[in-house]
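User: Hi! I'm working on a homework problem where we have to compare a predicted structure to a textbook description. Could you give me the structure for the chain below?
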Amino acid sequence: MFGIFILMMIMTLGAQWYLRSTFGTWSKRANTAGMTGRDVAAAILRKHGLDGTVQIEAVGGSLSDHYDPTKRVVRLSQPIHGAASVAGMAVAAHEVGHAIQHAKAYAPLQWRTSLLPVAQIGGNFGPYLAIFGLMLGATGLVNVGILLFGVAVAFQLVTLPIEFDASNRALAELRELGIVTQQDAGGARAVLNAAALTYVAAAAGSLMYLLYFFMASRN
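Assistant: Happy to help. Predicted structure tokens:
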């Protein structure tokens, strides 16, 4: 158990360091189009006829960018919203990619939305139930913990194709709008790949935990 925890921490911290390092590099590079993250998001939304239904908001924090499907809002952190950087261009386009997924009823996004309520409970309580169950020798409690945590892991696994698809859409949109040069595209791809790595590391770590609980419950 301790070895899995250490490995998971190394993977997570390594992925986060790589993301911040890559983001830091390309957030200092001005994009050729001279467009802020908000400009890019607005252009893509307008291209898809979503500028009247999806709003763009600035939020605090760093790397806090996200799309809220319940309120149909693309929220961009200050370093992305107002900066005309390569990183800002990439992240803004990625978040709008989620808005496009929502508008097109992208199936994995719908699956993730349906899993969310149980996944939140499973992620918060599943591991503890499994651990306490193993300590007490309570097989039923272990199984409930594994089941709940399994839903949380499924949520993370479904998230992966959603994130990769949003990144692919982002790069395609930037090219189709003609606002990205070959040099900018390389930087944008690097930022998006680094962000995707954090999701992969998190999912891999959770899957290792789930497998550990499953194997321990069979011993």
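For your comparison, note the following. The two ends are 14 Å apart (CA to CA). Residues 128 and 145 are 7 Å apart (CA to CA). Good luck with the assignment!
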